[in-house]
Amino acid sequence: MNPTTASTEDRSPQARTGAAPSGKDTAAQGTRRQLGSVLSAVGGQNLSLIGALILVLALFGSLNSAYLTWANIKVIGDAVTISGLLALVQTVVIVCGALDISVGSQVGVASVVSAMVFTSTGSNALLGIAAALGVGVLAGLLNGAVIVYGRVNPVIATLATLAAYKGVAQLLSKGAAQGYVSNDDVFVFLANGAILGVPVLLWVLALVTLGIHVLLKFTDIGRNIYAIGGNDTAARLSGININKYLIAVYGLAGVIAAVAGVLLTARTGFGHPVSGSEGLELKAITAAALGGCLLAGGRGGVGGTLLAITLLGALDNGLTVQGVNPFWQNVAQGTLLVVAVVIQKRRSGERAMGLPT
Questions:
Q1: How far is the C-alpha of 174 from the C-alpha of 177, rounded, in Å?
Q2: Residue 140 and residue 254 in contact, taking contact as beta carbons nearer than 8 Å
Q3: pLDDT in tens, 109-162
Q4: Among 250, 213, 199, 252, which Cα is nearest to 79's?
């Protein structure tokens, strides 16, 4: 007998016991493999978010019986829609290795423009929506142009336009809510309508989620975005036009922010320059980071972001239902963002600033 063969056989459990694997053992191994495949597909990050979401729902559900009612779940869903749209597109921006801090102010501009154009054109909702989308595209492309052609760091550039777009919204509206859209069928349908029993707001979120997921995971454009965020030098050397992609990604962010602005107008009945949009950028970035987006770029996806924004929405609503001071929501968001970044740094093995290795 070949010694190698004999050695191999000696190490085999079947060789030592002389027994063939039973059908029960084979089935158990198959089940474990399938379970491992499912867990691997879901990802550890997403499993942690699912666990945290279940914990939050159970906690606030036990504290207040009204929390898990369908009426309150719908409130959570409606509130999550606008911040969710921004978190999803922020995911694309972060994966590309950039950041957009101005999305909240873009929502305010789009909200004001949609209401003012609606009013000035004799209650034409479609023109109001189209004008808001046009403003969103321009705002996003301007961000991209400042970053690319002005060679300004994305954080600094969008921090500047955060203030600028907020000022534009206040100037256009004179600092007050504009228009009244709650008597228009289109805006009422967007705010309160349902398709197949599912609110229109959630349909919009679902369609944007699906579109961004397909873009990132199943197209050459998405692969190039990951490549740019992962290593922009290698991406450039491979022939990817990084400038074009950056401008396009910020243009997409402007469009989605404008959609969120239109939905904000529909939900509240007015165009709001600041109220309803302030702080959305922090929530979007927090959700993307909690969802697994590497802030340095090159890693992330819509699944984790969607879970994270749902977790934040459930937490905010639970605190509200319990009568907790709403300022604590900002504290919670800031804390979660710090926790998410700390976890990223620990996983990457990056040396802490100012500390010895």
A1: 9
A2: yes
A3: 999 999 999 999 988 999 999 999 999 999 999 999 999 999 999 999 999 999
A4: 199
